[in-house]
Design brief:
single chain, Four Helix Bundle (Hemerythrin (Met), subunit A), 171 residues, 5 helices, mainly alpha
Length: 171
């Protein structure tokens, strides 16, 4: 749980940059990769990160750019390209940070109804990051299945070690 707004903002900026790195590593021709038929594709998971970045803060009283697109906690259709997904994510992220400017550290102790439970806002912010990290992990697996190289975001990937001129750890 976050207890300081500035701590959240610092971590969010790094996490948002990491998410953009993932989006940038997905060419449109591979954006349809899914683990199996009937599951989310890479692009749909990326779009899910956009929709929840708009939808979840709405439960906390924040109005995020793009909120008019959310119905029943989802934005039905992702855009045509990963570049458009990225642009929507960047817009929502900037709007999210702007909305937090009105908050104080004490605001993080307020509770809101999040999906039928009462959550402190500091816990909700931690969940937004955890949710995004969870789905980025899913995207890494799909990227590998599509023959793509995921970017190094929380430490080097196997390929990231080589880029640093080092041997990757043994598996």
């Amino acid at each position: 749980m976050f207890r300081k707004i500035e701590d959240f903002k610092t971590i969010w900026q790094v996490e948002a940059e990491n998410t953009i790195k993932v989006f940038d590593a997905i060419p449109d021709e591979h954006a349809g990769q899914a683990v199996t038929e009937g599951h989310r594709t890479l692009k749909r998971i990326a779009w899910h990160l956009v929709e929840t970045l708009i939808e979840m803060p709405g439960h906390l009283g924040l109005v995020i750019d793009g909120h008019e697109m959310v119905e029943n906690m989802a934005i039905i259709d992702p855009p045509a390209t990963m570049a458009e997904v990225k642009a929507a994510y960047q817009k929502a992220s900037a709007s999210f940070l702007k909305g937090l400017e009105a908050w104080t550290d004490e605001t993080l102790l307020q509770e809101d109804n999040m999906y039928g439970e009462m959550w402190k806002r500091g816990a909700s912010l931690a969940m937004i990051i955890g949710h995004q990290t969870h789905h980025r992990g899913e995207m890494f697996v799909l990227m590998r299945q599509a023959g793509l190289v995921p970017p190094s975001v929380c430490g080097p990937t196997k390929e990231g070690w080589a880029a640093m001129g080092m041997e990757p750890p043994s598996v």
